[in-house]
Task: inverse folding
């Protein structure tokens, strides 16, 4: 026991010293160690390829049946919202109204229902006024228009036709006299206009095929017999006939187009049925024929960003003696930045065939017996940039220069009338124009357009371009509120107009032995309101010239101030 205690004490002391970093103390001891005897393995290693089978444990398939519980939940019925792809179509549209100055309005339109093959319709319009201007001759008027149209649309061709009849009555009220002192019949005029067109277009959708078009126009225009006793059976009449044709061929990226047009206008002022009248008589006879041959080539490249057109317009003026004119036809366009900017440049010209119908549509107070000349635009060079600033804003800025021979201007006549009718004077005009426009559209809810133009006239003989404006400004817009209230507004402003007069009066100035009358500025503001009761019935209110400006569109021809018209429209 003492020996064991001594050994344990020594072990504890040794461990303690070792932990304290002291030197190791070795103590001698006596003991017995047994070593197993060694033996040699006499077997060599070998491969055992015996397959050892493993017992397969089988697990019995237990059949467990559980009770299935089915619960039926109530599902609310589904609702399907359908939107009509097309609005309901109505055949007939009627507009009836009445305005200040006893001005009745009536319009009726009838159109066929939706059809891919057949389209036809008719319309009748009437507007008249029984009001007069204070201290002016009687100024009542009436306008009635009727029309028929129809077309047959097939895959390879289209056949269409149109007929019209217009009846316009007016008074030459440009006399500053008491209304009751002038006989209405002595200053009355009535224009009759009847005609029609026929068109055939072959448009097979094959680039290796020639497509062509053929058209025929006819129009008869006549005036009322003269109120002068010596000319009681005299009046103006013209017959217009035109043959129009064209041929188109598309080869690759080029389009070849050739137009051939023949226009004839036979004008006569005198006794109808009297074939003995000539230019040497007091009557007027004028047979006006114009032939046009216009070949052009159009090409597209750069993914249709670049477009070009070039050709010539060959015109034959066969009024008295045949004269041939050659006009250039060229136009270049290039789209930049996905149609954001589209610069364009072009040059053209043409021969405008004058007629009583076209002249009276511009100035209805002109004489029916006038000497007419065809207007020759020798060259018209134009260019500019158009494009879009955003998906709602578009713009156009451009300028042009044109030279016109035999440009017609309206001047007051004192030979055949008392200054209340207009005759024509002709001169060579160099016209420079600068214009710009800006448009904004918010879907179909809001639309606004602003257009401005400035004109510079350079004439050979006369000092002013009579009755033409130096500048124009137009603003128009429309607003749709919930498709229930519709508001439209337009403002037309013109300035820099001058008229030729034959006496000195207030505001008249004398230049080069001529009396010049500034016509002042035109400020015409119009406002329209429409209330849609439903898709078939609506009411409208139109206020014209609400700025109450009694401006003169022509010398001695003032307009009505502050006109109001109201009425209803219906579809069925």
Result:
């Amino acid at each position: 026991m003492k020996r064991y205690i001594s050994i344990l004490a020594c072990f504890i002391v040794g461990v303690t010293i070792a932990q304290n970093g002291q030197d190791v103390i070795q103590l001698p001891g006596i003991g017995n160690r047994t070593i197993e005897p060694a033996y040699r393995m006499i077997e060599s290693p070998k491969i055992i390829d015996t397959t050892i089978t493993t017992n397969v444990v089988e697990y019995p398939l237990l059949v467990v049946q559980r009770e299935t519980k089915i619960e039926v939940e109530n599902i609310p019925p589904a609702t399907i919202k359908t939107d009509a792809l097309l609005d309901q179509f109505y055949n007939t549209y009627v507009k009836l109204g009445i305005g200040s100055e006893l001005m009745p309005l009536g319009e009726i339109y009838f159109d066929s229902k939706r059809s891919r093959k057949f389209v036809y319709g008719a319309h009748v319009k009437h507007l008249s006024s029984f009001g007069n201007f204070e201290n002016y001759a009687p100024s009542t008027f009436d306008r009635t228009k009727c029309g028929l149209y129809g077309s047959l649309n097939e895959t390879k061709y289209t056949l269409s036709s149109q007929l019209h009849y217009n009846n316009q009555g007016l008074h030459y009220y440009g006399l500053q006299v008491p209304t009751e002192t002038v006989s209405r019949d002595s200053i009355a005029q009535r224009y009759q206009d009847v005609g029609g067109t026929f068109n055939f277009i072959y448009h097979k959708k094959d680039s290796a095929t020639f497509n062509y078009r053929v058209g025929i126009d006819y129009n008869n225009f006549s005036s009322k017999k003269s109120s002068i006793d010596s000319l009681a059976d005299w009046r103006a009449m013209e017959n217009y006939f035109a043959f129009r044709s064209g041929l188109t061929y598309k080869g690759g990226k080029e389009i070849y187009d050739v137009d051939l047009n023949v226009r004839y206008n036979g004008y006569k002022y005198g006794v109808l049925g009297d074939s003995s009248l000539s230019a040497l008589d007091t009557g007027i006879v004028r047979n006006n024929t114009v032939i046009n041959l216009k070949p052009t080539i159009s090409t597209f490249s750069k993914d249709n960003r670049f477009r070009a057109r070039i050709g010539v317009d060959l015109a034959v003026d066969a009024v008295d003696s045949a004269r041939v004119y050659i006009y250039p036809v060229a136009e270049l366009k290039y789209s930049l930045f996905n149609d954001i900017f589209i610069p364009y440049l072009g040059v053209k010209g043409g021969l405008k065939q004058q007629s009583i119908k076209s002249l009276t549509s511009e100035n209805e107070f002109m004489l029916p017996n006038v000497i007419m000349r065809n207007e020759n635009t020798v060259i018209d060079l134009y260019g500019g940039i158009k494009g879009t600033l955003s998906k709602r804003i578009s713009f156009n800025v451009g300028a042009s220069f044109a030279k016109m021979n035999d440009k017609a201007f309206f001047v007051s006549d004192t030979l055949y009338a008392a200054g209340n009718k207009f005759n024509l004077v002709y001169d060579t005009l160099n016209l420079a124009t600068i214009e710009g426009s800006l448009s904004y559209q918010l879907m179909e809810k809001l639309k606004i357009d602003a257009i401005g133009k400035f004109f510079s006239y350079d004439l050979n003989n006369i000092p002013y371009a009579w009755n033409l404006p130096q500048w124009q400004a137009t603003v128009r817009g429309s607003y749709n509120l919930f498709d229930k209230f519709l508001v439209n507004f337009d403002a037309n402003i013109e300035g820099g107009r001058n008229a030729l007069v034959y006496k000195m009066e207030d505001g008249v100035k004398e230049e080069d032995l001529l009396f010049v009358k500034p016509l002042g500025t035109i400020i015409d503001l119009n406002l329209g309101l429409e209330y849609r009761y439903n898709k078939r019935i609506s009411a409208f209110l139109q206020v014209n010239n609400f700025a109450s400006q009694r401006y003169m569109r022509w010398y001695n021809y003032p307009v009505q101030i502050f006109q109001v018209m109201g009425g209803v429209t219906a579809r069925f």
